[in-house]
Amino acid sequence: MRITADTNILVRVIFLDDVAQARTALDILAKADTVFLPLPCLCEFAWVLERTYGLSRQHIAASLRQIIQRANVETDAQAIGVGLRVLEAGGDFADGVIASIGAQSGADNFVSFDRKAVARIKAAGLSAELATNKT
Question: What is the pLDDT of residues 75-116, one digit of tens each?
Fold first, then answer.
């Protein structure tokens, strides 16, 4: 069976905060031939771990790696790699994913009003520029 896992499946596996659901989630993931993890799901997962559970960026990165390294998981490894680099540099996982997808799609630059995001995207090796107000 090939499945797409929702964010709540991933959260149960990491936190085991509902034992019955955690067992079910682990069983579903283990029995699937392929588990597709769309990038929005992983961005939401990182956000939930930070905002709801208060995990550090290092713990979020470790949790993401734990999930995506399962043998039956398929996802966009390139975008996740950039997202992890940005996350571990103190930024948002989603910013890295967004910049990577843009670059893969042919965009020349990641553009943002967020100075720190632009700096972290550049540090991750992608082209980025700060949007400035025109006066």
Answer: 999 999 999 999 999 999 999 999 999 999 999 999 999 999
Cβ burial, residue 97 (10 Å; 0-12/13-18/19+): buried
> Do residues 95 and 34 both lie within one domain?
no
What domain range is 105 assigned to?
78-135
In percent, the amount of the chain with pLDDT more than 90 equals 95
**Contact of 72 with 32, CB cutoff 8 Å:** yes
- Give the SS3 label for residue 10: helix
Beta bridge partners of 112: 130
Whichever domain contains 53, its CATH number is 3.40.50.1010
Let me know whether 103 and 53 are in one domain.
no
Torsion of CA 42, 48, 51, 52, to 10 degrees: -160
- Provide the number of structural domains found in the chain: 2
